[in-house]
Amino acid sequence: MGRKSASEIDENQEPMSEKAEQILKGAMQEFLAHGYAATSMDRVAAAAGVSKATVYSHFQDKEGLFTALVARMAQQKFSVIYAPTLLEGDPVTVLRRMATVAMSRVCCDPEQHAFVRLVMGEADRFPQLAQIFVQYVTKPGVDFLSHYFTDHPELNIPDPEATARIVIGAIVHFAQVQEMLHGAEIMPMESDRIIDALMHLVMRERVIS
Amino acid sequence: MGRKSASEIDENQEPMSEKAEQILKGAMQEFLAHGYAATSMDRVAAAAGVSKATVYSHFQDKEGLFTALVARMAQQKFSVIYAPTLLEGDPVTVLRRMATVAMSRVCCDPEQHAFVRLVMGEADRFPQLAQIFVQYVTKPGVDFLSHYFTDHPELNIPDPEATARIVIGAIVHFAQVQEMLHGAEIMPMESDRIIDALMHLVMRERVIS
DNA sequence: TATAAACTAAACTGTATAGTTCAGTTTTCC
DNA sequence: GGAAAACTGAACTATACAGTTTAGTTTATA
Fold it and tell me: Within a 10 A sphere around the Cβ of B28, how many other Cβ atoms?
């Protein structure tokens, strides 16, 4: 039952036993709802429909379970998947489609909000988990958009990577303020206005071929 | 000793007794370092150099202390202060200066990182605190930049508020990824590149007067 | 100086927690 | 069928916590 020491994180994708999956599912429910410190192992076991001894036979301790869970979620559940069809069409269409898809994913999924909150809130106590989040969630998104900019010089973007970060940062921050921080009531705005303004900024100096 | 019920938040700025200030200082240290759930009232009292009974004579309970603390910090310590001199000069200079100041404030202050982590991490358990954060930290920044855009039509920005959110979101998200999520090692980038790319996007279609 | 208010230290209550142990049950697999 | 492994439920240890109480001390004030 290859366990890991508390401080190292399993980045492999060893197939897991059914019980281990069950436990992770219960752990996800509890940790996402209550955060790390306020989640008890008894509640995790109950949520997983499993005895507490079984939890401790699959995971070294609370920290080990938490790190296994978050690393796994970052790699599986929240890693960005890009459909090839996303790239079909002219840049104006494609960029707007990408922005719209990203915005809806990042705005409309409460589980994603809870996950981001969890990772951000624990980023100082679990810096490795924060880095895994960056590696598997943030970086692929930036790289993807950055490559698209690079592959389309007619967009006339001098620094594709920085520009990719700006576009993604604007979308993510909008979702954070509106949804995660409940800012929608205080400073309401349609997400389309962000997308329109982004398109205006990025597209207006392109070279018409 | 006008206390508040646990669920309502004091948005007034009643002058506080010296002991209450002491307690808030200790509470800030502990809550910023360990988060809400993992902070104990004994440690808060010890950090404040005060007996636990005194803590409970000034604040109703842990939740009341926490909400008083976070609301206060959002209004005092992390509300954005704008110097009038920030606005002197032509738009190219002013915008770059504003971006640079914002970036340094948001990137280089570990206490600000801890505060944002705390508010984000507890935003579901304390939605009113998240809204106070938006009201006193996010909104003033967006409004300020938005007004600057509106006051300078030569910049040719069709949607000032959305554009202000994009600029601020890009800067804040950059700081979040690089510093708060420890992404600097995984996807390093100089903050100047973000600022340059932002300037390029915002300024390139301005009307030269 | 007298009096009230604020404060302290410490003990105390009741509950919750991480992690372990163990006797007994179920599952797996040869 | 039978042995080994996995699992269960429940009790158990030791610790920590929120919040209260008490008895005594300091501080301000009039």
Answer: 22
Whether CB of A52 is under 7 Å from strand D: the answer is: yes
Q: Which two structure tokens, joined as six digits, stand for B196?
A: 């340059």
- Kindly list the distances between the CA atom of residue A22 and the CA atoms of A10, A36, A167, A197, B158, in Å, as whole numbers in the listed order: 18, 18, 37, 44, 51
For A166-209, the pLDDT digits (tens) are 999 999 999 999 999 999 999 999 999 999 999 999 997 665 64
| Nearest residue to D7 via alpha carbon and C1' | A54
Contact assessment for residue B47 and residue B26, using Cβ atoms and an 8 Å cutoff:
yes
The H or E element that residue A172 is part of is helix A160-175
- In this structure, are residues A32 and A111 in contact, taking their beta carbons and an 8 Å threshold? yes
| Burial of residue A170 (number of CB atoms within 10 Å: 0-12, 13-18, 19+) | buried
Instruction: Report in angstroms the alpha-carbon separations of A47 from A15, A23, A57, A207, B63.
Output: 22, 8, 17, 56, 26
The SS3 assignment for A80 reads coil
- What phi-psi label fits residue B196: left (phi over 0), alpha (psi between -120 and 50 degrees) or beta? alpha
State pLDDT tens for residues A107-128.
999 999 999 999 999 999 999 9
Tokens of residue A124, six digits:
């100082």
Model pTM? 0.93
pLDDT at A6: 44
Give the mutation candidate from B133, B134, B147 for the A interface (greatest A CB count, under 10 A).
B134
Distance linking the first and last C-alpha atoms of chain B: 60
Distance, angstroms, CA A40 to C1' C16?
9
Q: Which helix (H) or strand (E) holds A67?
A: helix A62-72
d(CA B41, CA B59): 11
